[in-house]
Amino acid sequence: MTDLYAAQRAMRNMRKAALQRGVVAILDVGTSKIACLVLRFDGDGFVGGEGVGALAGQSSFRVIGAATTRSRGVRFGEIDAMAETERAIRTAVQAAQKMAQTRVDHVIACFSGGQPRSYGLDGQVEVEQNIVSEQDVARVLAASEVPDYGPHREVLHAQPVNFALDHRSGLSDPRGQAGQNLAVDMHMLTVDGAVIQNLLYCIKRCDLEVAGVASGAYVSGISALVEDEQELGAACVDMGGGSTDVSIFMKKHMIYADSVRMGGDHVTSDIAMGLQIPAATAERIKTFYGGVVATGMDDREMIEVGGDSGDWERDRRTVSRSEVIGIIRPRVEEILEGVRECLDAAGFEHLPSQQIVLTGGASQIPGLDTLAPKILGQQVRIGRPLRVQGLPQAATGAAFASAVGLCLFAANPQDEWWDFEIPTERYPARSLKRAMRWFKDNW
Q: Where is the SHS2 domain (predicted)?
């Protein structure tokens, strides 16, 4: 396994270099589509690591190229067939480069799935000079007790969420403040190591350099939740093709992430099996006639199934819309029940705000806004990503929440563990042993 601390530091430095050059590509590797956006930065605004809070180094950018292609070789948000996925990524990147009329060498990628697990870490140190310095922040992060998260898993995000200085808690950036005792609460997200390695290897096979990797759950929350929701506490549910990502935000930081291994493609396959039709026809029927709430009109609305089996009677079949809804609804309910379990496990009901935002391509099924509150709670809305300068109209829908969120992640990175020089020689003995074991496991 790689030393992820060093790998993430290298990626962060590569991202800074790419942003200074002014052009970077965004790659959203999903189960149903692969989206690529090419961003141009003005270069003036980016200041790396200038704050531990959200949107630390502000930078303005615009989208100059965008392309999507049907995803191949990806299941449950994880790469299943390397050559197929490589071909799909190349297709999307080349089309985006053509539109942008520039060549791109660096990409920042995000993916769903990978069986994410969240951990809460905390650490405490004495401040050396009575004024909190960068070195003190690095020491307190190093003093956080890293849990034994098991072999074959890697840390994807490790963000300080809250600092406390003496008896003052809720600080977003303690640097430069006077105090004696510095404590930190961190959120650490681990994923299946093989999923990250496969993604990095696949992108390298496309002759591209990886300048950053992010969780789909995290970036969807950045783009679909408005600022107040991120501050007061809200959950973002990104309903993709192969998996549904759940993330909870509080004080503008992600504090929990999980995923349900079901999505819109499962609804399509249910329709295909239920009506005995090809998957492409099932996708068309789901898109044009899908829904989760049946009315009296739906019994009379007949849908031509069509087909080219050669059997004239079979190819002229019709089904009522209420039959289609009867197939779709149980699967959508099952997905929402899975989301409910994730939120219950996270203790979501204890947050001051109970807002839930549904986004992603599968959230566009008509009637979901009336069904979801019955399962998830009253405060549910369908979210669209923030407007980004230069984004084509076709890429402003909920299906592009993670791609737009990745743009914001690239431009305005939150400080993470690897942005600080962790001083090994200053670890307390107990933490040193644990941290050294952690590094050893990850080399």
A: 24-224
Model confidence pLDDT, tens digit, residues 209-263: 888 899 999 999 999 999 889 988 899 999 999 899 999 998 889 999 999 999 9
How many Cβ atoms from other residues are within 10 Å of residue 437's Cβ? 12
Please determine, looking at this structure, whether the domain spanning 117-191 carries the CATH number 3.90.1640.30. no
Q: What angle (nearest 5°) sits at the alpha carbon of residue 96, between those of residues 94 and 100?
A: 115
β-pair type (380-382, 355-359): parallel
d(CA 215, CA 54): 16
Tokens for 426? 């200053």
Torsion sign, CA atoms 26, 338, 74, 7: positive
pTM of the model: 0.86
50, 57 in Cβ contact below 8 A?
Answer: yes
Q: How far from each other are the two terminal CA atoms of the chain, in whole angstroms?
A: 6
Contact 139, 107 (CB under 8 A): no
| Three-state DSSP class for residue 328 | helix
CA distance 355 to 344: 14
Residues 6+ away with beta carbon under 8 Å from 362: 239, 240, 241, 244, 263, 264, 267, 335
The two tokens of residue 416 are 């993470």
Residue 289's pLDDT band (cuts 50, 70, 90):
very high
What crossing angle do the helices spanning 279-289 and 321-346 adopt, rounded to 10°? Answer: 80
CB burial class (10 A; 0-12, 13-18, 19+) of residue 327? buried
Whole-number Å distance between alpha carbons of 302 and 145: 61
CA pair distance 302, 294, nearest whole angstrom:
14
Cα–Cα distance, 241 to 227 (Å, whole number): 27
185: nearest Cα among 233, 230, 141, 250: 141
